[in-house]
Amino acid sequence: MRTSHYPIGTPGQPWGAEEKQQWLEQQQIKRSYFDEVVSKINRLHEQFDVEQYGVLDYPANTYPVFILRSTQWDANRPTVLVTGGVHGYETSGVHGALAFAERHVPHYRQWFNFVIVPCLSPWGYETVNRWNPYAIDPNGPFYANSPAAECALLMSYLERHEFSFIMHIDLHETTDTDNSEFRPALAAREGTVNTNWNIPDGFYTVGSSEKPTPEFQRAVIEAVRQVTHIAPPDEAGQIIGAPVEQEGVIHYAGRKLGLCMGMTDAPYVTTTEVYPDSAKTSPEECIEAQVAAVLGGLNYILQNELGQAVTN
After folding, report:
1. pLDDT tens digits, 184-210
2. Cα(198)–Cα(262) distance, rounded to whole angstroms?
3. Interhelix angle for 91-103 vs 283-304, to 10°?
4. Calpha distance 241→262 (Å, rounded)
5. pTM for the predicted model, two decimal places
6. Beta-bridge partner residues of 49
7. DSSP 8-state assignment for residue 211
């Protein structure tokens, strides 16, 4: 492991408003949420009830945020939540959610209702960033009175509709920029010393230590294995500093940590992580890995909860 220093702020001192503004002024728009994400959402109106669940009104732009609810909704079916783009820079999470919605929901909606949130953090998507414009990481404040509008808007929508979810899968990436940019920035913001961890080369999942589901996690891993490689543990037997529970699986306390994966009472929960910077994969393969992860989870529930034969 190695430590990294960040050019904003004074080592050992947390950021104040001046440092956060300095950080914000360095961010640049690098791609278009409207051209790359909203345009795809707009093509899904025949398969989904597309709802705008809020607006993120930021100085650089105003971003509507959308939820896709599958048509032919049946209250007797279990409901599945798929979220992507909690960290806007994690591209395959956004486009994996959209690809799953377009290609597979028409088949699986005979057994499930779907609520799909393709991109929670559109400003982060456009600036290829982990934080929102106020230097807040949206994966952490999923709790009451959240300081992150990205979290508050989604939680408010879900609470109003009183969904009962059987599964929630949150689609993420781990990238080289976690060590080169985001972890050093976090340490600088907090006034601590950053120690980089080894970036896992491959796919892994983060299950909930509060409600572990080892067979479900294994089903996700086995489905993804058909698409891309699974991340091995490091020399300490860990992945991103957490013990490996089984091949390609670690645990976090999702609800206690305020993570997106912990915001519902779904019994089956996982966060996916792919590694798009690997020499062994490609951006397209990472999107397919995200789709495979959702399918692996659905097929496990079909077989083990609903008693259905799996037919993709």
Report:
1. 999 999 999 888 788 999 999 999 999
2. 25
3. 50
4. 20
5. 0.96
6. 69
7. S
